[in-house]
Amino acid sequence: MDCRRCGTPLRKPGDYCLVCDTANCDAVVAACDRDHATLTFLDDEEVIGQTDIATVPEEGGETGVVELRNFAGRIADEIRRKRPEDVFVAGDHDVIRAVRADLHYEVYRVPRENPVESVVERRGDRSLDVVDKPAREKIGGRHSTLIGDRDGQRAIRTVADHPNVKKVIPGPIDAGGSGSRTGVRAKVTRADDNGNLRLLVRDGSSVQENRVVTTAMNRDTGERVRADLNDALAEEELRD
């Protein structure tokens, strides 16, 4: 592949051109398993290249930590050489966490099933604007207490991390339930007519209902965002 601006041959499809300072890829989709990652490079909605990266997982101890870090570093290096506007990830949450730690990009999670198609569809649907803010800046409201300690915070951040979520507004905690299950569980409920959602987080008999404001314009597009969010919660092993 040659640079689209100056015609210089690129070492790999989608590489950033250092000759004329031009990006030839505006999005990377990384589908990550624990032993393998497939990176797909997009220019607008067109797939312009793909790279596979493999590793042999090491179990436990310092060896396992180093192997995972090196695997994530190779994925991050491949993303950096493209200098994309957007980075989307799907798959194994340990690999995703390690890749995020190695990148200075905001990383958006997409469903594990058909991640490239999901991104292409999202980028083609101009009615769903992307909110370019870190998850922490999207969380706010009158109620600052979050149910479920670290797991509850992880559920809120997982939802806030979605590119079509504008804001997550925590609600009051209702401790009057009769549930007997232990551990934090979460799910996103059906969209309203404006495309906005509710995130229910349960911790034993307590429940917190959080308002999720999205860029969806109607119930149908809101339902698409809801499906993405519930997939993300399932990947984090928090889905109710």
Taken from the alpha-carbon principal axes, the silhouette is globular
Strand content: 25-35%
Helix proportion of residues, in percent? 25-40%
Largest sheet: 5 strands, mixed
Category by helix and strand content: alpha+beta
> Residue ranges: pLDDT <50 for 5 or more in a row?
none
Indicate the radius of gyration in whole angstroms: 19 Å
Would you give an account of this structure?
This protein is of the alpha+beta class and 240 residues long. 29% of the residues lie in helices and 25% in strands. The strands form two sheets. It has a five-stranded mixed beta sheet with strand order 3-2-1-4-5, with helices on both faces. Strands 6, 7, 8, 9 and 10 form a five-stranded antiparallel beta sheet that branches. The radius of gyration is 19 Å and the shape is globular.
What labels would you give this structure?
alpha+beta, 5 helices, five-stranded antiparallel sheet, globular
Q: Secondary structure elements and their pairing?
A:
Elements: E1 27-32, E2 36-43, E3 46-54, H1 61-80, E4 86-91, H2 93-102, E5 107-109, H3 115-124, H4 149-160, E6 165-169, E7 173-174, E8 184-188, E9 197-203, E10 206-214, H5 219-235
Parallel strand pairs: 1-4, 4-5
Antiparallel strand pairs: 1-2, 2-3, 6-10, 7-10, 8-9, 9-10
Helix pairs in contact: 1-2
